[in-house]
């Protein structure tokens, strides 16, 4: 495992948007929080996408959906103070928390993350 994907990054890959190629290049070594997976499913359903089998298809490409632990929840809650001015959602903070726990970079489309001064490598893909 080399990176944690934010929901925005995986959606960029699905929708063939700028930055999607960067995600394709790391899927075999990527993880995503179960919280962020819920975001991907929600946005896909809202767009009329049939999500049946989507998780299994991604697993076949190497993406691992990892549990959001109580420790991740505590970190996400603590990150609120440092990130509230930037407007980060609970899902955003969930992704950052998992990246911090695993000590690996996070990939996102949200450029504000790179300005937060957090103790992890944030890679903005577009």
From TrEMBL:
Gene3D superfamilies: 5'-nuclease. Residues 3-113 form the PIN domain. It comes from the Bacteria. InterPro entries: PIN-like_dom_sf, PIN_dom. This is Twitching motility protein PilT. It comes from Nostoc minutum NIES-26.
